[in-house]
Design goal:
Rhomboid_IM_Serine_Proteases, 11 helices, hydrolase
């Protein structure tokens, strides 16, 4: 028998030695995996590109701490939507109007109220808008948080929300903002960035890219159509695009990578410079620009003496 062994034979022996250390361990291979083990395996296959990283993650992940960020954000958005639906008589329209009188919605004439640049993400215009955002948020956000942690996933989400409102304030300054599309598109773009950088190693990489781009294109198309065809109040679509770009850049910055080649480090610095420059420009624009005039599609504010009644 020849002393030479093929590469596949050596890999098979190495794989066997890693999984089975003695003959008493063979019964472990016959047990059906638990639901938790199957879920962790699915997350590893969807998010991690390298086989060694997937195996390490499956062996080490214990769901402690659990992915609470995405769950808490989802529950908060559901609660706010239920509150406004109850206030409007307990009826939630499929594509209802934006509650522009809410202190949470971003309005260009109230941009000095800085919290609105973030809180607009928890208010939605109709249950269709809410359902789409929550489905994508859970499908993409939960696996990302399980792998990268709440802090990194939260940074990507917040960057998308803030980037969406800042971009809308500069590029589309006459419209209101409502909905978590900026944060959702940031998560989606961060996931796509991972798939693009590791396209050769991702399972069904081409199918996943095409499906994600198709869903995003349809949603952005509906947003553009609503922007220019619906009656008042118009809602900006710039937050969708800006949120995706923010997720793409911040995802490259904060998400963990198994290895970084030279061109990836250069891309890291380019992403940092691009996001910092765009954010600084938008902040300065909001600070130095003239106050926004009263919007023609909003009712005038009540006089000061009438606000207490």
């Amino acid at each position: 028998m020849s002393g030479k062994r093929t590469r596949s034979y050596r890999c098979a022996v190495h794989h066997r030695d890693r999984e089975v250390s003695s003959e008493n361990d063979f019964h472990l291979l016959l047990e059906d995996p638990t639901f938790f083990a199957r879920m962790v395996h699915l997350v590893a296959m969807e998010v991690l590109p390298e086989e060694r990283d997937r195996k390490y993650y499956q062996e080490r992940y214990t769901c402690c701490p659990p992915p609470l960020f995405i769950i808490c954000v989802t529950l908060l958005e559901l609660g706010v939507f239920a509150w406004y639906a109850w206030g409007s008589g307990g009826v939630a329209a499929a594509a209802g109007p934006v509650p522009v009188d809410s202190p949470l919605v971003y309005r260009p004439d109230r941009r000095r109220e800085l919290w609105r640049f973030l809180t607009y993400s928890v208010v939605h215009a109709g249950w269709l808008h809410l359902a789409f955002n929550l489905l994508v948020q859970l499908a993409v956000g939960l696996p990302l948080e399980m792998v990268h942690g709440a802090a990194r996933c939260g940074a990507v989400y917040a960057a998308g929300v803030l980037g969406g409102s800042l971009a809308a304030s500069v590029l589309d300054p006459d419209v209101c903002l409502a909905g978590a599309s900026g944060g959702v598109y940031a998560l989606l773009a961060a996931h796509l960035a991972n798939a693009l950088l590791n396209f050769h190693a991702m399972r069904y990489g081409a199918v996943r890219l095409v499906a994600a781009l198709a869903v995003a294109s349809c949603d952005v198309g509906f947003a553009v159509h609503a922007r220019y065809t619906k009656e008042a109040p118009p809602v900006s679509y710039a937050a969708h695009v800006a949120g995706a770009l923010a997720g793409l850049t911040i995802g490259l910055l904060v998400l963990k990578h198994a290895q970084q080649r030279l061109w990836e480090r250069l891309l890291w610095w380019a992403a940092l410079g691009a996001y910092a420059a765009c954010t600084l420009f938008a902040v300065l624009h909001n600070l130095l620009a003239a106050p926004a005039p009263d919007l023609h599609y909003l009712p005038p504010d009540p006089p000061d003496h009438a606000q207490g009644f």
